[in-house]
Amino acid sequence: MDLADRLKTARRNAGLTQRQVSEKCGIDDSSLSAFEKCRSEPKLAQLDKLAGVYHVPLSYFFAESTPKAQVVMWRNKLGETEEINKNEIEAEFLQLCRQYRQLELWTDEVCEKELPHLDRFRDTFEYPHVQEMAKEARDVMGLGMRPGDSLYLVLEETYGIKIFHLDLGPAGVAACAVSDEFGDGIFLNKRCARWRRNHDLAHELFHLLTWRRFKHCEGLCQPTDQEEKFATCFAGNLLLPTDVVKTAIDKVTENDGRISFERLDAIAREFDVSLESLLWRMHFLFNSTEATTKGLVEKAKEYVKSVPRSDSPEPQFLPDRYRCLAIKALQKGEISLGRFAKFMSISRKEAEKYVDGKEPDYAKVPIPAV
């Protein structure tokens, strides 16, 4: 593609009109139109502004080969009434993932450990296989019997999954991507409560583990209804292990074989999931009828309104590991102050505070020889 085509493609991939681009970067739309029709060429400073708006590296416009399109798979379909720009969110997410990988390369901190290969099943793939995958994932990945506390940290620190929290509006959506360019990535809705994000994270993990089975590597990035049901089953089994959950329920079940919402909600908090998620897990553990469970879920929704959990703090925009790598890259001289500010989404003045932040000699722990 020539420069004009790349400019047009980048804008369309970001889901923006020329008028919207003009409002974001200050380049009038007549100039934008001329750039895209090859009637004139933008200056380097203008290209840099456009790269920021389109969430692509400046090199995107000069690469010899045609940039490979990255595919992002969304958990839920977005309707026309959604208040977010799906394409722009995707472009921002992909840019963050590329920056994350660049920081890993600059600091020589690329995670070599890949997600375990748990999908060893042949043509047949049913719910028992999903349940087996969830159990093995807990064991192999060292998530413990209450993965809600450890899942995020293990995925980020051990397996190098690039996890971001973006503003996705009021909808309960999440998405993931697998890329030869930057590895695996997930983004969650920062507006959701922590226990909802835990479920979404486990749900997206299933998609990463089965990416090739469902042929998303071939660009088919709309999950089927059955695949989504499998992912929900995986998330429930991963976050709420059978034996441990049954034991917790047995301890608080009354003599008449009933249990209060209050006690069930306490168990849900223990596993860092919602009361609704726990009720659906019990549906499968105890073979309840669907009508019964749906009735209980509706009553539970009313119950949680009367005793809401304390609001969990809003997750930070950039992951801790990403921030640490950016600071390390700056202090090693691998990244300029201006680019560091851009990567950290802060002003240049704020970035200057990190320049002299090297660890003093006393901030080291001696390890005696054995």
Question: Mean pLDDT across all residues, rounded?
Answer: 87
Share of residues in helices: 40-55%
Q: Outline the biggest β-sheet.
A: 4 strands, mixed
**Shape assignment:** globular
Stretches with pLDDT under 50, minimum 5 residues: none
Q: What structural category do the secondary elements indicate?
A: mainly alpha
Strand content: 5-15%
How would you describe the oligomerization state of the chains in this entry?
A: single chain
Taking all Cα atoms into account, the compactness measure Rg is 24 Å
The SSE string, one letter per element, is: HHHHEHHHEEEHHHHHHHHH
Cα distance, first to last residue?
60 Å
Largest sheet, spatial ordering of strands: 1-3-4-2
What is the domain total for the residues? 3
Tally of helical segments: 16
- The total strand number stands at 4
Concise overview:
The chain has 370 residues and is mainly alpha-helical.
Walk me through this protein's architecture.
The structure is a single chain. The protein is mainly α and 370 residues long. The longest helix is centred in the first third of the chain and has 21 residues, at 86-106. Strand 3 and strand 4 form a beta hairpin. It starts with a helix and ends in a 19-residue tail after the last helix. It has 3 domains: 1-67, 434 Repressor (Amino-terminal Domain); 68-238 and 320-370, no CATH class; 242-306. The protein has helices spanning 3-13, 18-25, 29-36, 44-54, 86-106, 127-140, 151-158, 194-209, 225-239, 242-252, 261-270, 275-285, 290-306, 320-331, 337-344, 348-351, and strands spanning 73-74, 162-166, 175-179, 183-189. It has 16 helices and 4 strands.
